[in-house]
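Example (one chain per record):
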Amino acid sequence: MKCPVCKTPELRPTMIEELLPAMGCEQCKGSLVGLLYYRHWAEHHKPAAQTGGPATIAELPPDTTGAVRCPKCERIMTKYRLTGTIANRLDVCSICDEAWLDGGEWQLLEQLQLSDKLPSVFSDAWQRKIRTENSERMRQEILRRDIGSEDAGKVETIRTWLRGHPAKSMILTYLYRD
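Predicted structure:
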């Protein structure tokens, strides 16, 4: 099998973690991980203790932006976003049940505390949540741009207060009439 990114080097057997074999590219440091092997690893892996949320990422690994072909079947792999704020995406072949991790993406998954949550990342619910968060972030940025940060902060304070208020509908009706 050839590397889907470099195109020329043959993938070689490697270990991403203990009990997690993969086929790796020595040139770009990418890895093809069988999700069957991943599931076995996840069942036997003890996740690291959570320390107040994901760490801040100093430098993101490079991400393959174009389409990636599965090294096994040559079909285009599906891209899955990790978070709404990080551009890196994991490539998955639904036919072969293989994931391509660009060089450094396994370490990124570990920093984000997602290395033991890949099935969730590949779910429609996870991807939908990311899209919703991105939409909300864009709405907030537009509001800040249009009315300024200070006023946008006031609007967010009112919005938070209003969200749980029992008379929310009445208050909104009153405000709309103005």
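Caption: The chain has six helices and six strands.
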